[in-house]
Write a structure and sequence with these properties.
The protein has about 450 residues and is mainly α. The chain has 17 helices and no strands. It has helices at about 5-15, 45-55, 60-85, 95-105, 120-135, 140-165, 170-180, 180-185, 195-215, 220-235, 240-255, 260-285, 305-320, 335-365, 370-390, 405-420, 425-454. α1 crosses α3, α9 runs antiparallel to α10 and α10 (about 220-235) runs parallel beside α12. The longest helix has 30 residues, at about 335-365. The model is unreliable at about 5-45 and about 320-325 (pLDDT under 50).
């Protein structure tokens, strides 16, 4: 390996400085986002403020090289899946295409008899535009999901930089983890509104972090918050809990909202998503289109502790792609070795995250902004929403629904290992390197599986 290559790898797996408990990086009290008063430049919006915050910590060029490599890998793998994945192989792609074609050909939203009619129409309007221009070229339409997935990765980096400006390596580690998830690579290259849901979730969490860090609330930030909520409402129902959490954080952090601030939040929400709810009221006499469950049998819902454990296990496995695309068996190693190793890895990751969170939770609750506690709530809400659907409608333990909070899962995992192993940096290097190698193996196995299917 060349000298530059070694430095890039070190940049990706380099541990952050030791921080524990109430001193967690999530609670950095003197970062630019937690200054005692807002600066005049803060009125320019969320993303400019995050960029200005990140600029306070000078990043070495090898950090930028690592980030560039991560985005290049993400783009390359997404394009590979766009090409090699058979049309209709993944995530109800045919049903999503029919929705978009209805808009493209007839400029109409689906009626009561159309599958996926309960989905908000924003994603399908984007797909419809591409289909109309390209003559129903499905692979060209998949590029919309590719762009949305890349934007999601960018928003994750911005959020983690805003959250932990003095620990930039954790932002890079979170980015790499998101990029190398096989489920992100395969699902992010299909016609499915999950890609827009991921982006909307990442945008909501970025707005959440900035809202909690801001000492003073201005109209511009309210407009950004309203836009993030409106985008979430028009993306997918899996993002709606995060939109509600963002509004709750705004009200808790800034208790006294003036008329101008309330209007600044409400107007983008109404402009972006209000018309769809009005249309539903006039068409279906209810705010949402009727939902027809895939199955009405209680056998296909979570009803026992054993089924709950199975739901958790399958959700974890689908995150890293052990089931392969569209339940195609994915073989990693001889026999069931890959499955056993994956299960063991899941137990280790869960234990580390629980230990780190329990250690830091008291400090989060005592802190002024409590960013860590709010992000923990975002992860819990994402899981709870998916689980409630599996209990009441249909058992679907699919990690793509949970990736609306990908920033928390990926960034939180990196933070947890850096926290627990802060006193043993060499071991942290080894763990990070092993995780990087394992995820690359899974990526290669998943791509090979899809190549064989096609």
């Amino acid at each position: 390996m060349s000298s530059i290559g070694r430095r890039v790898v070190i940049a990706i797996i380099k541990p952050a400085e030791p921080v524990l408990g109430a001193q967690s990086a999530v609670m950095e009290p003197r970062s630019p986002l937690t200054a005692s008063r807002s600066t005049p430049a803060a009125a320019h919006g969320i993303i400019p403020e995050v960029l200005r915050t990140g600029a306070a910590t000078r990043l070495p060029r090898y950090w930028w090289a690592g980030a560039a490599c991560a985005f290049a890998v993400l783009l390359a793998t997404l394009l590979v899946y766009v090409v090699v994945t058979p049309i209709g192989e993944q995530s109800d792609e045919i049903a999503h295409l029919h929705y978009a074609q209805l808009i493209s050909r007839h400029l109409a939203l689906p009626s009561a008899g159309v599958q996926e009619r309960q989905q908000p129409p924003l994603y399908y309007a984007l797909i419809a535009g591409v289909l109309r221009v390209t003559g129903d070229n499905v692979r060209a339409a998949r590029l919309v999901s590719v762009v949305l997935t890349i934007i999601t990765a960018l928003l994750i980096v911005l959020t983690l930089r805003a959250l932990m400006p003095r620990r930039p390596w954790l932002a890079l580690a979170g980015l790499v983890m998101f990029v190398l998830l096989p489920s992100v690579q395969s699902e992010g290259a299909q016609v499915s509104n999950d890609a827009l849901a991921w982006m909307a979730g990442a945008a909501a969490l970025l707005a959440l972090v900035v809202t909690l860090r801001r000492q003073e609330l201005d109209v511009t930030l309210c407009l950004w918050v309203g836009a993030a909520v409106g985008l979430a409402l028009m993306a997918k129902a899996t993002v709606w809990p995060l939109a509600a959490l963002l509004l709750a954080a705004l009200l808790v952090r800034h208790r006294r909202l003036g008329a101008a601030q309330i209007a600044a939040v409400a107007l983008p929400i109404a402009a972006i998503s209000g018309w769809w709810f009005v249309r539903n009221l006039t068409t279906y006499h209810r705010p949402l289109p009727p939902l027809t469950p895939i199955t009405t049998s209680a056998e296909h819902t979570v009803r026992s502790a054993r089924q709950l454990l199975s739901w958790l296990s399958l959700s974890w496995k689908s995150t890293v792609g052990i089931e392969g695309p569209q339940q195609t068996p994915l073989v990693v190693g001889p026999g069931r070795l890959g499955l056993y190793l994956l299960t063991a890895a899941g137990i280790v990751v869960a234990a580390v995250v629980v230990v780190a969170t329990a250690t830091a939770l008291r400090g989060w609750m005592r802190g002024g902004n409590r960013s860590g506690a709010w992000l923990l709530a975002a992860a819990v809400l994402a899981v709870a929403f998916s689980l409630v659907n599996s209990v009441t409608l249909d058992d679907q333990p699919q990690a793509r629904y949970l990736l609306v909070a990908a920033c928390v899962w990926c960034g939180g995992t990196a933070w947890a290992f850096a926290t627990v192993l802060a006193a043993r940096p060499r071991l942290l290097h080894v763990v990070a390197g092993a995780a990087l190698a394992a995820m690359l193996v899974l990526d290669i196995a998943t791509v090979q599986t899809m190549r064989l299917v096609s």
